[in-house]
Design goal:
The chain has helices at 9-36, 102-123, 131-156, 164-237, 243-270, 277-326, 332-391, 441-445; strands at residues 39-44, 46-50, 53-59, 61-62, 65-69, 74-79, 86-87, 92-96, 397-399, 404-409, 416-417, 422-427, 433-440, 452-455, 464-473, 481-490, 497-503, 507-514, 519-521, 524-535, 538-553, 557-562, 570-575, 584-587. By secondary structure, the protein is of the alpha+beta class.
Length: 591
C-alpha cells in the first residue's frame, strides 16, 4: 500500500498567525493604555533668581485739599480770588457784609433772657430770719421759770418736810438738759444745712462736668460719623469721581480725622484722674458734711437721752412730793401753780418744735432756689461760649488758613451763605501727592503698608520717592483685586502718569518651579514630580508628591525648598484630568 505523508502546514500557519496576533495585541495594548492615562505638561526644576515685584501704572493726584466754609450766616460782599489762583496763608479770600448775623442776634437774645432769669431767681431766693421765734421762745422759758418758782413757793408753805431742794436740783438738771438738746438740735440743723449746701455744690460740679463730657462725647460721635461717611464716599468714588472731588473728599476725611483725634484726646483728658479731682473733692466735702451731720444727730440723741433721764428724776421727786402732799389738803393755789408750770412747759415745747420745723422747711426752699440758680448759671456759660464761637475771628473777612491753589469758588458777590456752606476749595501741595492702581489679591499678599517703591518710567527732574500707604479692597472687583495707594514725594505734579514697582529685592535660589506647578491641600503645599520607570514596553511615567515650602515668588515662578533637584527633574504644571500621588500619566508630546 502506498504511504502518503500527513499535511501539517496548517498547524505551522496557525502558530505563525497566533504569534503575529499576540505581537500586534501586545504592541497596541501599550498604545491603548497610554491613551487612557491623563496627559500632562512638565517643566524642569531650575536654579536662578526671582524678583518678587508688583508693578502698576496710575495717575498722580493731590493728596488733599482745604475746604473753606462759612462760619456763620453772612452776606458775601466781595470775592477776592478765582479758580487757579495761588494764595498764601493769611490772604483775604472773601469780604463779608457788615452787621450781626441771625445766629449772633439769636445767641445774644438767648443770653439776655438767661441773665434776666438768673436775676429774677436770685431775687426770689427766700430770706430767712428767726428773731421773732427766738424771742417768743425766750419769753416762754422765762414764763416757765416764773411758774416753777411760784410752784416752789407754794411747796415751801407746807408744814411737812418736802424734798424741794431735790426737786429744784432735778428741775435744774432737766432745764440744763433741755438747753443742751436745743443747742444740739440747732447744731444738727446747721450741719444739715451745710450738708445740703455741699450736695448742691457737688451736684453743680457733676452737672457741669457731665454737660461738658456729653458735649465732647457728641463731638466724638459726630466726627466718627463724618470720618465713616467721607471714607465710604471716597472709597466708592475713587473710580467714578473726578480728581477734584476725590481731593475734596480726601481733605474732608483728613480734617474729620484731625477733629476726631482732637475730640478723642479731649474726651480722654476729661475722663482722666486729674479732670475728676474737682468731683472727688466735692464728693469728699459731702462725705465730711455727712459725717458731721451724723455726729450732730448722735449728739441730739445723747441730749434727748439725758433729758429723758432728767425728766424721769423730776417726775420721781415730784411723785414723792405728790405723795406727801396727798396726805394733806391740796390747796387750790398748789394745783394752779402746778398747772401753770405744765402749761409753760407745753408752750415752750410747741414754740421750739415749730422753730425746728420752720428751719427745715426754709433750708429745703433755699436749696431748691440755689439749685435753680446753678442750672441757669450753667446755661449762661454755655450761651456765652456759643456767642463767642459765633463772633470769633476777623469780623468782616475770611482769610486763607493754608497756602495753595484755588480749585473752585462756590459763591458770588451779593450772595448770602449759611453757616457750614462751602465757599471755596484750595489744593494744598504741602499735603503731598498720591497714586493708586489695582492688583490681584495674590500680588497684594506679598506687600505690606510702608514698603518703598520705585518709579520706573520717570527719567527727568529730581528723583521721586514712593511709599505704600494703604492696601484696600478694589470697589470695582472686591472679590479678586486690591487697590494700592502710594504717597509720592519729590519732583512730581498732579496729572502725571507713572509706573511703580514695589516688593522684595532680587535673590538667588537653588530650586525654582513655575507657579502653575504649586498645589496645596489640607497637608500643605506640594508639587507632583515626574518619575520615570523602564519596562519591556517602554518608559512609564508616575506622578510623585513632593512637599515644598514657597520662599519667594514673582508673576511666573516660585522659589521652593523640598526633596527636589535642579538636575534633570521635572514637575507637572498642567494636566487634562485630575491626578494624585502615584498615578500613571503620559506626556503631552507622546500623543
Amino acid at each position: 500500500m502506498e504511504y502518503k505523508p500527513k499535511n501539517r502546514d496548517w498547524v505551522k500557519n496557525a502558530a505563525i498567525l497566533f504569534l503575529a496576533v499576540l505581537l500586534v495585541l501586545t504592541f497596541f495594548s501599550n498604545t491603548i493604555m497610554n491613551r487612557s492615562l491623563p496627559e500632562v505638561a512638565t517643566q524642569s526644576v531650575q536654579g536662578g533668581s526671582i524678583t518678587a515685584k508688583v508693578r502698576g501704572t496710575g495717575t498722580v493726584t493731590a493728596a488733599g485739599s482745604h475746604v473753606v466754609k462759612a462760619e456763620e450766616t453772612r452776606e458775601i460782599r466781595a470775592v477776592m480770588v478765582k479758580a487757579g489762583q495761588s494764595v498764601n496763608a493769611g490772604d483775604v479770600l472773601f469780604v463779608l457784609g457788615e452787621g450781626d448775623s441771625a445766629e449772633v442776634e439769636a445767641a445774644q437774645e438767648q443770653l439776655r433772657q438767661l441773665q434776666l432769669s438768673y436775676q429774677r431767681s436770685a431775687v426770689s431766693v427766700p430770706v430767712v430770719s428767726y428773731k421773732a421765734e427766738e424771742r417768743e421762745i425766750e419769753k416762754a422759758r422765762q414764763a416757765l421759770s416764773d411758774a416753777q418758782a411760784a410752784l416752789a413757793g407754794v411747796q415751801q408753805k407746807s408744814t411737812r418736810e418736802i424734798p424741794s431742794e431735790q426737786l429744784d436740783a432735778a428741775k435744774q438738771e432737766a432745764y440744763a438738759a433741755t438747753e443742751a438738746l436745743t443747742a444740739a438740735k440747732a447744731e444738727l440743723a446747721a450741719k444739715q444745712e451745710e450738708l445740703e449746701s455741699k450736695k448742691l455744690d457737688r451736684d453743680a460740679v457733676l452737672s457741669l462736668y457731665n454737660d461738658k463730657l456729653n458735649t465732647v462725647y457728641d463731638r466724638v460721635q459726630e466726627q466718627e460719623y463724618w470720618v465713616e461717611k467721607f471714607s465710604t464716599e471716597l472709597q466708592d468714588g475713587l473710580a467714578t469721581e473726578p480728581p477734584g472731588r476725590i481731593a475734596e473728599l480726601q481733605e474732608a476725611l483728613r480734617l474729620s480725622k484731625d477733629a476726631l483725634a482732637e475730640a478723642t484726646q479731649l474726651l480722654n483728658a476729661m475722663q482722666s484722674e486729674d479732670a475728676r479731682k474737682e468731683i472727688e473733692l466735692a464728693q469728699s466735702a459731702v462725705a465730711d458734711a455727712e459725717a458731721a451731720a451724723n455726729a450732730a444727730q448722735e449728739s441730739v440723741t445723747d441730749a434727748e437721752t439725758a433729758l429723758a433721764a432728767a425728766q424721769a428724776k423730776v417726775e420721781a421727786v415730784q411723785a414723792v412730793i405728790d405723795e406727801i402732799m396727798g396726805t394733806e389738803t391740796i390747796s387750790a393755789e398748789y394745783k394752779a401753780a402746778k398747772e401753770a408750770v405744765q402749761a409753760a412747759e407745753d408752750t415752750l415745747f410747741t414754740l421750739e418744735n415749730n422753730l425746728e420745723l420752720k428751719r427745715i422747711s426754709d433750708s429745703k426752699s433755699q436749696s431748691l432756689s440755689y439749685l435753680d440758680l446753678s442750672d441757669i448759671g450753667q446755661q449762661i456759660e454755655r450761651a456765652k461760649q456759643k456767642l463767642a464761637e459765633l463772633t470769633g475771628g476777623e469780623e468782616n473777612q475770611i482769610l486763607a488758613k493754608v497756602s495753595g491753589t484755588v480749585q473752585s469758588v462756590e459763591c458770588t458777590a451779593g450772595e448770602t451763605k449759611a453757616k457750614g456752606d462751602v465757599l471755596a476749595t484750595l489744593e494744598v501741595p504741602d499735603l503731598g501727592y498720591t497714586l493708586s492702581f489695582t492688583v490681584t489679591n495674590d500680588q497684594a499678599r506679598r506687600l505690606k503698608v510702608g514698603d518703598s517703591a520705585t518709579v520706573s518710567n520717570y527719567y527727568w527732574g529730581n528723583s521721586i520717592t514712593a511709599t505704600l500707604e494703604s492696601i484696600r479692597t478694589d470697589p470695582k472687583n472686591p472679590q479678586t483685586n486690591k487697590l494700592l495707594t502710594f504717597n509720592l514725594t519729590g519732583d512730581v505734579n498732579a496729572g502725571a502718569e507713572l509706573t511703580i514697582s514695589v516688593g522684595q529685592k532680587s535673590a538667588s535660589y537653588d530650586l525654582i518651579v513655575p507657579n502653575s506647578a504649586i498645589r496645596s491641600d489640607a497637608n500643605g503645599q506640594f508639587v507632583l514630580k515626574l518619575e520615570s520607570k523602564s519596562s519591556p514596553l517602554g518608559n512609564r511615567y508616575i506622578a510623585r508628591r513632593v512637599n515644598v515650602e514657597v520662599l519667594a515668588e514673582d508673576d511666573m515662578n516660585s522659589a521652593v525648598t523640598g526633596d527636589l533637584s535642579s538636575w534633570g527633574e521635572y514637575v507637572i504644571t498642567t494636566s487634562n484630568a485630575p491626578i494624585k500621588n502615584g498615578d500613571m500619566v503620559r506626556l503631552a508630546d507622546n500623543g
